[in-house]
Amino acid sequence: MTSYVLLGTALLLALLSPWTGRRIRRHRAEQDRRTAAEHYRKRLLAATDHAITTAVRAQLAEPVTDLRIRPPMRVTIGDVITRARNDFAMEVPRDKAAEMLRHRLELRGHARWPDLITDAFDDEEDQTP
What we know:
By secondary structure, this protein is mainly alpha-helical. It has helices spanning about 1-60, 75-90, 95-110, 120-125, and strands spanning about 75, 115. The chain is rod-shaped. The termini are far apart.
């Protein structure tokens, strides 16, 4: 009797193992895709923040000749792409870099600065009908 239970259990495991294996592989592949996407997003976010910080520091480093005139802060999509390429060795499409730059400028409060010079919002205005 015990041998039939063991034989039945072994047969059941043998029948379910291909289905279970495929399910585990699909789950791992999906988890790897999510991890890669999150890793990409974090690196792009860091490259964008570095580009903005560099622009702010460059603005603050310019000499003040007139107290009524502030030097402009210049940060472009190209700065983000270059920073991502140099710091993280990753190629970033222009539209993703522009989207992240807009998001980070708005989040950090720089988007409302009157002395901000950027091309991040140019693409957005061109798409409106």
